Each structure stands twice: as structure tokens, then as C-alpha cells.
Amino acid sequence: MQGIIGILLVLSWYNVHGVARVGNNVWVCVKDTGGANVYYSPDAGHTWEERGAMYSGFYPELWDIEFANENTGWAVGWAGLIFGTADGGKTWVLELPGGPKHFGRVKFVDNFVGWTSGGDAFYGKTTDGGVNWSWYSTVPGIVTDLYGVAAFDSLEAWMVGGVPAGMPGGQGFIIHTVDGGSTWELVDSSSVYEYLDVYFANPSKGWVVGGLDTIPYTPILLYTDDGGNTFVDRTPEDAYTLRAVQFIDENEGWAVGKYGTIIHTTDGGQTWENQPSGVTVTLFDIEFINSDVGTVVGDSGIILFTEDGGNTWHLRSPFVGVKERSGASQRNRVRLLSDSRSLGFEVRDVDGDLKAVLYDVTGRKTGHVLLRKGITWITGLKPGVYFVRVPGLGTFKGLVLP
Q: What angle do CA 237, 210, 80 make, to 5 degrees?
């Protein structure tokens, strides 16, 4: 079946790392950016606007984004920068001009109390909606980057992280505070897996996800129903390293990760089922607003939407699809399509012939095709990553799916 989700025309450096959603309003933040670092959609991904947060004349990498309502939001990332907005991201104010390292996640429990997890076991915290931020260390002596954060109020929070393979004590860390961060309990440091995200539906029930950051990308998924006194392994068999987890109540939730993995549970994480995403890139973040409506973001500009609880996913991304020429030939457009193991080029309003050169993931030239108005196909391709160069348009990254 033909569909634009099968082969993706992507500006290759876009790594969509975080997503926030309020109704049909969607914000995503970009890491590894060559342009703006925040994009906004007012209509669940059908149209997009650039709403970047600039620092010292450039757009820094942003790793996560959070909105409390249609107007009030925050974004965190490179060098410990924290930005805030009061107008839906049209303008951004630098609220914290840098910490000890990056901040990877930000979570607000209301309009005032927010926590961030960061590198080198540091975290950030505000109790006045971002007017004032402070950053602190967590457990003395541990060497870790903190990735995920879950908080209930200004006093209690969980954070998880990991360190490079071979470090003493294993890779995974789970830490917990009940006094606003003055002291932290080291709950677990024995795992060989990195812990990459944590979510609590209430003070008793929570989940931790992660996995190996190297081949074979084995996942880990832990569950607690006693407030973290004990964690039980509930890792599904058919999955890869998990990067984010979210629940809409104590029973229904999703987790996403490596190779386009999306898994879903309706029994509190005791069992999980796969939901085919249609992509093979790493998915970094997930945001559901109810049991039907959700958004997932990932590498290579991927932004996926569902309106049926994840049974079907639809690609709606400002980084995927059409790239226009400049100057007098700006009307020329090329769009990539797919069929079974085929790559199609749709050309509209062409002023002449265009030549597309195809390369595999190693950079080896695998062929070329002359493009004319209409649709031209290259057939018999193996599934995998391809780079397409069209003079005058640039070089783009695509995926051919089985």
C-alpha cells in the first residue's frame, strides 16, 4: 500500500527529542539542530510554525519541553539552559543561564513547582513557576547522568540515570527524595542496564524503563506498587531499549524506544503488546492526553500521531515530506513515496529534468534516476537507510521499510 510514512524525506540532522501537548496544541523540541529548536502545531500536527528559543545568537540543543497550559511552558537542554514562555512559545525568556551540564528532562506538577534531571547527577528545581531556578547535586559520590524525572509536589521526586559501561556499581541508578531534594536515597545502583525514564501514576505505582545502549539493545522495564520499596521486572520479550514511558492512569500506559518500538499496556504494566509504528528510528518521547490521543517523537524528524490509542500512527512532521528549491525554481517540488521495497519520487510543476542520486547507509552510490513531472519509481530496494541527493535541493535521509 502506498503511503508517505513508508519512505521519509528528512533533513538528516533533526533529532526530535521532546514533546508537549495541550489539546490539539503540540510543541516539539529539537536536539542536533541546524535551525530553530522549537516547533508548534495548533492542529495536532497538520500545520507547523517555528518558535525557537535563542541563546547568544544561536539555537541551542533542547532535550525536553513541558507545557502547563496553552500559554505557559518550559524547555531545557544544552549546558543547563532553561527557557520559559508565557505566550505559547512565540517568545522565550532565559530563566536559568546554565548549569553544571545539560538538563535532559523537565516535569512540572502544577504552574509553580518544576523539577529537571541533569548530567553529572545534578538536578534543577523551581517553586515559583520558573522565576527562580536553582541546581543542586543529588547523591554524593555517584557518577551518573540523570535522564528521567517524576515528581508529586515540591518535596517528593524520583530520578533515574545511567553511567558508561564498565563503571563500578553497574549502569542503572534510581534515586528518591521526600524532603525537596535536601537528601536523596540511592534506591538501586546494581543494574547493568541504563535507566532512561520513570513515571509514577500515584505515590504507590510507578514504572522505570531503559536498557542497553549498545547492541543488542536489550530493554528493561521495572514496576513498583509499594512506593518504590521493591521493583519487579516486567520487561516484555519483543522490544528494544526503551527511552520514555507514560501512563494516563494506573492501568493504561505506553513506552517507546529503539527501532521504532511502541508498547502498550492496559493492566498496569503486567503485560505489554506491541503497536507497530511504521518507523525504525529511535523514539525519544511520548505524550498522551487521553486513552485515544497521543504523540510520539524521535530521530530523523519523526513525529507520529494517533487518535485510536496507538492502533494506527500517522506521520505529521515539519521535517518530513516537501523541500522546495530556492530562487526562480522555487515552484519545483519533490516528495518521496513508498511501496513494497520501492522508492518513489513525485515531482510537480517541474521546469525541467531533475536527477536524483541514491546512496546506501555506508555512502556507497547505489543508483540514480532522472525525474520528470509525475511519479518515478526505483524498485527492488532492500529495507534500510538511504540518502538521496537532488542537485538544487540538497541531500536527504530516507528509510525504506519492509
A: 160
Identify the domain containing residue 343 by its residue range: 323-400
Cα distance between residue 334 and residue 324, in whole Å: 8
Retrieve residue 351's grid coordinates: 521546469
Same domain, 69 and 201: yes
Grid cell at residue 135: 541546581
DSSP H/E element including 234: none
Query: Which of 247, 281, 315 is where one domain is finished?
Result: 315
Residues 6+ apart with CB under 8 A from 4: 315, 320, 321, 335, 336, 337, 338
Q: Are residues 167 and 102 in the same domain?
A: yes
pLDDT over threshold 70, residue 10: no
Checking if the pLDDT of 345 tops 80, the result is no
Q: Is residue 175 scored above 70 in pLDDT? A: yes
Mean pLDDT (whole number) for 257-283: 94
User: Is residue 9, in this structure, part of any structural domain at all?
Assistant: no
- Structural Rg of the chain based on CA atoms: 22
Could you tell me if 349 and 383 lie in one domain? yes
In 3D, which of 303, 274, 309, 273 has the Cα closest to residue 290? 309
Q: What is the mean pLDDT of the chain?
A: 84
**φ/ψ (deg, to 5) at 151:** -135, 150
Q: What cell was used for 303?
A: 513525529
Residue after which a domain boundary falls, among 290, 315, 340 = 315
pLDDT at 324: 34
Q: Are residues 307 and 391 in the same domain?
A: no
